[in-house]
Amino acid sequence: MICMKRVLPVLLFCLTLSAAAQQRISFPGNLTYDPFYSVLVEDSDGNVYTLNDASYLSPEGERKYFVWFRRGTDRGLAEYPLDLNRIVSFELTGNYEVFPDGYTPCRVELSSGDIFDGFLDTTGYLGGMDPEFGVYARIYLQYNGVKKVTFLHDGTYLRCPFCGSIFYDYGLTECPFDKTPLVPQNP
Known about the structure:
Helix content: 10-25%
Shape: globular
Strand content: 35-45%
Radius of gyration: 21 Å
């Protein structure tokens, strides 16, 4: 029993050290898991809105950094999550709420320069800070008549060397949290 009491703290220490080492390997450079996007949203009347710290929110309100995209038919031959950091813009090209599962015809342009026609899950909404009003705004993709969403990035990101936050808004030059100059990553 005494031997077990001596071994247990050493075992726990080794497990903790191993888990910490795995985390350092998985998330090098103190990167946060909350990227900051800025987007321009154009509605069907031609009005343009800006959202900062934008993300896609599911109908349940879960914050996502991807959208579901289908290629093939309206029911989809291939369906997969499309990361926001790969999207330059998406334009909704068809009627809203045509399909019972919430997918709307869409043309998406990727940061690689590729353009695809398919179907975008429009059951959720884009959320972010509206700099004109200084408050959080929700723009429902299916009901607000959104025509086009343009992400203000080119696929690369900026990193704050002080706090580790990453920003996909290439218009920023300093971290809004601590005013540290941002450093380009993956140029």
